[in-house]
Design a protein that fits this description.
Blueprint: E1 4-11, E2 15-16, H1 27-41, E3 52-56, H2 68-75, E4 83-87, H3 93-106, E5 112-120, H4 135-140, H5 148-158, H6 163-182, E6 192-199, E7 205-212, H7 224-228, E8 249-259, H8 260-265, E9 272-281, H9 290-302, E10 311-314, H10 319-328, H11 353-356, H12 360-378, E11 382-389, E12 393-401
The structure holds coenzyme A.
């Protein structure tokens, strides 16, 4: 089978739902910025060369609905010949989109394609605008519909992940992100126009625009003491709080994927190959355990060991589930691999979704962009990306750095 090359991988900053920079910025605008930046960063490739744009979205409706893939192809000025589609696998949608493009390329069906993801959690709330669980079936089978916070509490309770462990993990996520922000390590970020409508004294409205170039959920004031005071967010006596959960966030990310022939034809220098992608199903009411199944599955497919990876991104939907998954992989106890003050760390090295946010359908593509930066920075031969998925699944992908 031929190879699929990641040539360029970029993201907008992640910004807080409602309170953040993109609260009044339409999802199409976020996508337009990153797609145009992707094409500018790959000047040998013209828009007419891109066959297809596949975008992940967890709640593909309203402003991010219709068929956002095709809408963006047209809105960004690609010719009519560039197709577009939307894919939904909840939290891995963005990675699914990149992997599907890679599979088409590996099978010889396509040469140049874009995969990515979008979620404005401000504009389309989690659950969508009109959730309609099946009334009869859901009475006996609610698990596939329950809140993600409830599944995080289940993981904490069933597997003894204490509040202290979750807060500590969340704290280090914030500290790693603060360090990365201060040192300009998020090289995959595209400064993105944000808009805000401000009422003037005469009652008319003015549109203010600025370039947003950082993740605005990073909280410099975080202390363990402050985190310990937060009230549980999902259960009266629970342990999952705003400080140890992923933030709800707006953001977009895209990746240009190419065949070997296209890499040669357009004379581009690819970053990495997408070698493997898989998904694994788990119980819906503890969906957060997904990576504990998806990662061993992909390691077996690739005949690799967890120690082979210089960079590992396990999405922090919640600290409880991330800790459980790391425990199952034998990594949680090896604290030097994830602590913020360790120079041996290789897990969520620049912070995870607790600090940077988890814009659902975008997250898989956002993490791909981060993994590409981190692999290049560290010269890591292999990178691993994984996340849990609402409804009870896990996904994982393996990247190999190009020479
Ligand atoms: C947990 C959750 C409900 C909290 O929502 P929220 O109240 O809007 O969260 P915020 O991030 O705005 O934080 C609320 C407050 O907690 C406090 N807080 C949050 N993080 C903190 C930290 N690290 N240290 C101290 N205080 C903190 C702050 O007072 C903050 O308010 P402020 O930013 O206006 O000062 C929400 O983040 C959530 O649902 N997360 C999970 C999303 C999800 O399920 N995703 C899918 C996973 S599969």
């Amino acid at each position: 089978m031929s190879e699929a090359y990641i040539v360029t991988s970029l993201r907008t900053p992640g910004c807080r739902r409602r309170k953040g920079a993109f609260a009044q910025t339409r999802p199409e605008s976020l996508l337009k910025t990153v797609i145009e930046a992707l094409m500018e960063k790959t000047p040998n490739v013209e828009k007419k060369d891109v066959e297809d744009i596949l975008l992940g979205c967890a709640f593909p409706e309203a402003e991010q609905g219709l068929n956002i893939g095709r809408v963006m192809a047209q809105m960004c000025g690609f010719p009519d010949s560039t197709c577009g589609a939307t894919v939904n696998r909840f939290c891995s949608s963005g990675l699914e989109a990149i992997a599907l493009q890679a599979m088409r390329i590996r099978s010889g069906w396509c040469d140049v394609a874009i995969g990515g993801g979008i979620e404005s959690m401000t504009i389309v709330p989690m659950g969508g605008n009109m959730p309609r669980p099946h009334p009869d079936w859901a009475k006996e089978n609610p698990d596939v519909y329950i809140s993600m916070g409830a599944t995080a509490e289940n993981v904490a309770n069933r597997y003894n992940i204490t509040r202290e462990m979750q807060d500590e993990f969340g704290y280090h996520s914030q500290m790693k992100a603060i360090n990365a922000k201060q040192n300009g390590l998020y090289k995959e970020i595209v400064p993105t126009p944000a808009v805000k409508y401000v009422e003037k004294e005469d009652g008319s409205w003015e549109q203010k625009t600025w370039l947003q170039d950082f993740d605005d959920g990073i909280r410099e004031s975080t202390t363990l003491e402050g985190m310990a005071k937060l009230r549980p967010a999902f259960a009266a006596n629970g342990s999952v709080t705003a400080g140890n959960s992923s933030q709800t966030t707006d953001g977009a990310a895209v990746t240009l994927v190419m065949s070997e022939e296209a890499v040669k034809k357009f004379d581009v220098k690819p970053i990495a190959k997408l070698k493997y992608y898989t998904v694994a199903g788990v119980r819906a009411d503890e969906m957060g355990v997904g990576p504990a199944y998806a990662i061993p599955k992909i390691l077996k497919m690739a005949d690799m060991k967890i120690d082979d990876f210089g960079v590992i991104e396990v999405n922090e939907a919640f600290a409880s589930q991330a800790i459980y998954c790391l425990q199952q992989l034998g990594l949680y106890e090896k604290r030097e691999q994830w602590l913020s003050d360790s120079d041996k760390r290789r897990i969520n090295v620049n912070g995870g979704a607790i600090a940077l946010g988890h814009p659902l359908g975008c997250t898989g593509a956002k993490l791909c962009a981060q993994v590409m930066t981190e692999m290049q920075e560290r010269g890591a031969k292999y990178g691993l990306e994984s996340m849990c998925i609402g409804g009870g699944m896990g996904a994982a992908a393996i990247f190999e750095l190009c020479d």
